[in-house]
Amino acid sequence: MATGSEYTEEQLNYYRICCITTDELTDGLRTIFKQEWDNRYATTLGEWKDEAKNGQDFKNGESPQNQASNRELLATMINGNRAEWDCSMLFYAILYSDCIGRGLNVVVRSNIDDLRKFRYQDFAHLPRDQISEPKFQSAITKLQGVFQALGLSTVKIQEIRNQANFSISHLNKILKEVDKLKQEVKVLEEQLQRVDYATFDRGYSSLKSYQLESSVGAQAMIQRGVAVMSKKGQ
Q1: Which UniProt keywords apply (predicted)?
Q2: What's the pLDDT score for residue 226?
Q3: Can you give the pTM of this predicted structure?
Q4: Which residues contact 33 (CB under 8 A, 6 or more apart)?
Q5: What is the DSSP string of 95-128?
């Protein structure tokens, strides 16, 4: 067990925000997905019970285009067990799927998108190993506001906000997930930066696909890419 006396407050802030982003944010998305599914399909396809039938029903409700472009995500999602779904799968299911994304309440959509932006833009670019107190409090306030707007409990966020002791095994698991996320975002950003003028039009549709868009805020990067390439073409 790692205790608070072993770390500075800035290091503890980093570990706290990592735990909240990898654990509580993901659990919140799982809750919202089930709520949205049950609201739509409880009387027809049945409540979501994390069973294979649920996963198959979800896939069957997706258009051929969505099934093709999200084949890798659906390979896991078809099992129906939300505990196996990572944030990429959950953001796709809630924001971009035909089953849920179409007709999603604008307030829910806006707040889920705020969580997406926080994870892939704000959190993924935080400096490693420490966060200043003002930045930490700002991030916590933002997350709590979104959770409250979505009707999600903030009890666990409050507990982690003041947590001073961390299980070494759990902390190592969390930090590995964070490193994986940061590497994924770095690779995708480098891919976007390497897009040249000749292939820009051909690659534009794929850059707008869910995985890139949700991972690194591709729309903003595409706009920056257009500006850079326009200068090169002058």
Answers
A1: Coiled coil
A2: 47
A3: 0.77
A4: 48, 82, 90, 93, 94, 100
A5: II-TTTTTT--HHHHHHHHHHHHIIIIIGGGSPT
One-letter amino acid for residue 134 of the chain? P
Beta bridge partners of 166: 2
C-alpha dihedral sign at 179, 188, 123, 149 = negative
For the chain, the average pLDDT equals: 83
Burial class (CB in 10 A: 0-12, 13-18, 19+), 147: buried
* SS3 assignment, position 74: helix
pLDDT digits (tens, 9 = 90+) for 80-104: 999 999 999 999 999 999 999 998 9
Closest CA to 133 of 16, 22, 23: 16
Q: How far apart are alpha carbons 125 and 14 in whole angstroms?
A: 12
pLDDT in tens, 139-193: 999 999 999 999 999 999 999 998 888 888 888 888 888 888 877 777 776 666 6
> What is the C-alpha to C-alpha distance for residues 177 and 173, in angstroms, rounded to an integer?
6
Residue whose C-alpha is closest to residue 27's, from 154, 216, 162: 154
Lowest mean pLDDT among 30-34, 35-39, 42-46, 212-216: 212-216
Here the tokens at position 146 are 């979104």
Amino acid 184: pLDDT:
76
